[in-house]
Amino acid sequence: MSQLLPESFYEQSTLSLSKSLLGKHLVHESPEGKTVGRIVETEAYLGVIDQAAHSFNGRRTKRTEVMFGPPGVIYTYVMHTHCLINIVSNVVDVPEAVLIRAIEPVEGVELMRKRRNKQGVLLTNGPGKLTKAMGITMDAYGSIITEPPIYIVDGPTPTDIQVGPRIGIDNSGPAKEYPYRFWITNNKYVSR
Question: CA of 88: how far to CAs of 59, 103, 128, 159, 171, in Å?
C-alpha cells in the first residue's frame, strides 16, 4: 500500500492543498469491501472571505462546526440528495476546506458499479457520484482523514493541472468566478 498522508500534509493553504490532493488516492474500507479512487478534481473553499463557502463571514453553525477545527478532518454535507466529502484545511479557527469533486476508480470497481448501477466515467465523475460509489455517507462527518475507514494515501503527482472557476455556485456573487477549481488535464473522470 502507498504511504498514508500525515496530518501535517493538510496544514498547507487551502489553494495549495487543492492542487496537492490531485493524484492522491482516496480510500474507503467499508463492511462491503474496499474502494480506492485517484483524486482527479478538487475545489477550494476559503471560508470567511469566500461567499461560496458555508463558513462565509465566519458563519459557525452545527453543520460548519468541524470546519473551525484542525486540518485533516472530514466535512460532509448533503446537497440535494447527495452526500459530498470535503477535507478541512489550513489551521484551527480558519474555516476552510477542499471539496473532492471527482475520482478515477482504482480498486473495488465492481463494488462501485453495484452501488451506482453505472459504468465508465458516469461512475465517479462528480462529488455526489463518487461518494455513492465509495459508500461514503454523512457518518463520516468529523472523522479524521489520516486513519481508516476513510483515508488518503500518496499517489503520483500529475504533470499537467488545469485551473478554473468552481461549478454549481451561481448564487455566490463574484466568488463564482474565482479560479478555485483544479483538475488533471485530459482525465476523462473530471466532472466537466
Answer: 15, 18, 18, 25, 23
Q: Round the CA-based radius of gyration of the chain to a whole number and report it.
A: 15
Report the alpha-carbon angle 63-68-74, nearest 5: 65
Q: Which amino acid is at 6?
A: P
How many CA atoms does the CB half-sphere of 141 hold within 13 Å?
14
Distances (CA, A) of 178 to 14, 101, 167, 173, 183: 13, 16, 10, 10, 15
Angstrom distance (rounded) from CA 189 to CA 4: 23
Say if residues 3 and 154 touch (Cβ distance below 8 Å): yes
Q: How many residues does the chain have?
A: 192
Domain spans of the chain, in order of start: 7-184
C-alpha cell read off for 106: 482504482
Alpha carbon distance 8, 179 (integer Å): 25
In the predicted model, residues of the chain with pLDDT beneath 50 are none
Q: Which CATH architecture has domain 7-184?
A: Roll (3.10)
**pLDDT tens column, 48-91:** 888 888 887 777 778 789 999 999 999 999 988 899 999 999 98
